[in-house]
Write a structure and sequence with these properties.
- By secondary structure, the chain is an alpha/beta fold.
- It has one domain: Rossmann fold (3-Layer(aba) Sandwich).
- The chain is built from five helices and seven strands; from the N terminus they run αβαββββαβαβα.
- The strands form two sheets. A five-stranded parallel beta sheet has the order 2-1-5-6-7, with helices on both faces. It has a two-stranded antiparallel ribbon with strand order 3-4.
- Helix 3 runs parallel beside helix 4.
Length: about 140
């Protein structure tokens, strides 16, 4: 990815991981082999409440699945995106509308215009990073 894009401020990453526990996983797959499933399962195992967002499913990882962020009837803190870059602008718009605190674009997802729109609306933004990897990296010192 382009090195000139402000993709992930380490302080923002740490703040999101330490302060938020409700994560809507947009594009969560029912396939245990998919990265979205593995990340969501890991987050669940580490005390996060995951909210699956996938219009084709009823339930994933024991959690009720919602067709969109707007359909979730309670506050969302982090919107973790596992969709193609083309889908990001609409997802970010929904994240802003529902009052999310942060937007997290997974590895290889960079959409600077949407990131700026989210920041302008007061959301924290991470691009091109894996929430599971960053959580493990930040939490590692506590395990020793």
């Amino acid at each position: 990815m382009s090195g000139d894009v402000a993709q992930a401020d380490p302080q923002v990453i740490a703040e999101i991981i330490k302060n938020y526990r409700v994560v809507a996983v947009v594009g969560l797959s029912t396939d245990p082999g998919r990265p979205s499933y593995r990340v969501a399962e890991y987050l669940q195992q580490h005390g996060f409440r995951i909210i699956p967002v996938n219009p084709g499913c009823q339930e994933i990882l024991g959690e009720k699945c919602y067709p969109s962020l707007r359909d979730i009837p309670f506050p969302i803190e982090v919107v973790d995106i596992f969709r193609k870059v083309e889908a990001i602008p609409a997802i970010v718009e929904e994240a802003i509308q529902v009052g999310a605190k942060a937007v997290w674009m997974q590895l290889d997802l960079v959409e600077p215009e949407s990131a700026q729109k989210a920041r302008d609306a007061g959301l924290q933004v991470v691009m091109d990073r894996c929430l599971k990897v960053e959580h493990a990296r930040i939490k590692q010192p506590e395990a020793k």
